[in-house]
């Protein structure tokens, strides 16, 4: 096990009716900006619940944060923060709204020229507004960590940043929201959480007994619970399990002392930035290619994954790994995803463009936990997904 | 899954050489009281490492905190805190030193007549000194939670209390300490962690998919790693795994939304208070009795435990439960514990005294997650452990 520092101060309020408690979690004299997305919170009742819970607060609203939240939109929210002297941000939404709110929290206090530098140049987050979240979509785990992924429309880029100052002070998780979600969003959430775990697990072994088993626990639970939620999203227990699984997939506790990969995300982000492919879908397209291309580097963990997740015990090592990749792909397909690039009219031009971008962008020329996934190999693995 | 609030702000610094970083975790102008136990930190080198790391700090020492730390000793430390205007406590030791330090942290700021009221009368912890820990013994998990168990020698009582103000600000976990521990302490640590998990797991099912699997992950890992650590305590990977397992057993994350028991602890504490039995040993003596006595209330989880932990799939329900209890008891015995009361010269008098105490002490007349474990049943289960 490698040395590590673990710290996660997010207070999680989980369960039916927790939105009512919001007023006790925000300083009573705070000037609050409530950020949300396209307005689904108005049809599912969350908007009203939040407004009632915070009726005694000075509150401004900023709606319209899009899926894959953009720099362009978020900088308008920063303007509102400045105009209204906002001192607390409340994200009401899924991962996009929460990620966007983290960017606003950091950008509002940013002292340099352009807050985009936090994503491209590693400019440090020296200060940030406090933020809380009301989660409306179990998927990204953004409600329990200090990371965010932001897109910049003008240059079709999608990049990540993070800082311990960007942990939400609190996150409210009420599983009832799942019942009102479209099937596509539930499916995306299941796959997103699954691949978050894979990125932290499918590397090489470091004698991390518990971390391995905890990661496998999430995978096994998602395989069981995922299809059940899709079948009956109004079943509270299923919804609660999915919500907790998605949070724990990216709360940071399963990866302590372990190598991480994140290649699938780096590659998937490009498909989203260039073609608007849903985040989770982009991951489901890319992952089988990464597993195939990296099968030597990841051999030991792939065999463990084959055994413990899919119960694959027969065949030689190569056959077991083949079968594990096949089962993973089937799982995404059973949930309803089309996992080939050609299913989405994406062809060789895009692959060449990604190869080109990765060659020129710092840190992208040697992806994966071993640093051996070169732009040429990314091209090869994407071609296997055509 | 039940509603829950989860919050755990402890910063964990894990791994070889982390003690060096201590100076960055304590405010540089703090007046520090370093609390420790019987002096083993002087022979294993931890004392020197801490002193070097904090050479620029104003530091006072308080040694001599005993296993099962006593009110009598800890009130002397409170006096030192007051005399020296201490504003930061550093616990260097195992669960006893850390528990004791939490009591000192709360007692030093206690406004009522007697801090013991926090344990007997539920007097609220309204303020507490900040504390950090350097863990020297993986076992109790006290380094990652806000709970403590304190004994009062004069009346032979051992009681628990806790508060979110008593979370350590940070905890340093360097697995190298394991190599210098006596076999008995390692064995105790393994069993203590195992039974901490059991108390949070072996109740009744509430559709908590992940919580169940995470608890089972710790149990399975302890069954694998435990004997390996005892055989080779100087193997860093084994030691690191045991240390992380013991912390995660009582960090709070596996129990969220689930019922808890703690009967085994409540009964075990009496054996320690009355006869000085090691804490973990007291639990290993009592647990098989609780499993047997509560087999109807715990039936579903006992069957799940039999299947997932011990791979018991044959026989009727009763036979599977019998086998699971037997395997649990064997596990403790294989680690080197004698799990009968008579092995420790404890007889019927003690059992009657415990029955009597539980009848008169508030909250002890209806133990377990179902409130059905009466003092008379406690007597019966202890008699089965004679």
Main traits of this protein?
386 residues, 6-stranded parallel β-sheet, 11% strand, globular, alpha/beta, homodimer, Rossmann fold, Dehydroquinate synthase-like, alpha domain, 46% helix, two-stranded antiparallel sheet
Determine the N-to-C terminus distance of chain A: 38 Å
User: In CATH, what is the homologous superfamily of the largest domain in chain A?
Assistant: Dehydroquinate synthase-like - alpha domain
Supply the CATH architecture of the largest domain in chain A: Up-down Bundle
The largest contact between protein chains, plus residue counts on each side, is:
A-B, 40 and 40 residues
Reading the helices and strands of chain A in chain order gives EEEHHEHEHHEEEEHHHHHHHHH
Summarize the structure.
The structure is a homodimer of 386-residue chains. Chain A is α/β, with parallel strands linked by helices and 386 residues long.
Question: Can you lay out the helices and strands and say which pair or pack?
Answer:
2 copies of one chain form a homodimer.
Chain A: E1 4-6, E2 11-14, E3 31-35, H1 40-43, H2 46-53, E4 58-62, H3 71-84, E5 88-93, H4 95-107, H5 117-120, E6 131-135, E7 147-152, E8 157-162, E9 170-173, H6 183-201, H7 209-231, H8 236-249, H9 263-275, H10 279-293, H11 299-310, H12 317-334, H13 348-360, H14 375-383
Parallel strand pairs in A: 2-9, 3-4, 3-5, 5-6, 6-9
Antiparallel strand pairs in A: 7-8
Structure description:
- Two copies of one chain form a homodimer.
- Chain A is built from 14 helices and nine strands.
- The longest helix of chain A is centred in the middle third of the chain and has 23 residues, at 209-231.
- The first copy, chain A, has a six-stranded parallel sheet with strand order 2-9-6-5-3-4, covered by helices on one side.
- Chain A is globular, with a radius of gyration of 20 Å.
- In chain A, 46% of the residues lie in helices and 11% in strands.
- The first copy, chain A, has two domains: 11-176, 3-Layer(aba) Sandwich (Rossmann fold); 183-383, Dehydroquinate synthase-like, alpha domain, CATH 1.20.1090.
- In chain A, strand 7 (147-152) and strand 8 (157-162) form a beta hairpin.
- The model of chain A has no long low-confidence stretch (mean pLDDT 96).
- Chain A has helices at residues 40-43, 46-53, 71-84, 95-107, 117-120, 183-201, 209-231, 236-249, 263-275, 279-293, 299-310, 317-334, 348-360, 375-383, and strands spanning 4-6, 11-14, 31-35, 58-62, 88-93, 131-135, 147-152, 157-162, 170-173.
- At the A-B interface, strand 1, strand 2, helix 7 and helix 8 of A face strand 1, strand 2, helix 8 and helix 9 of B.
- Strand 2 (11-14) of chain A pairs antiparallel with strand 1 of chain B.
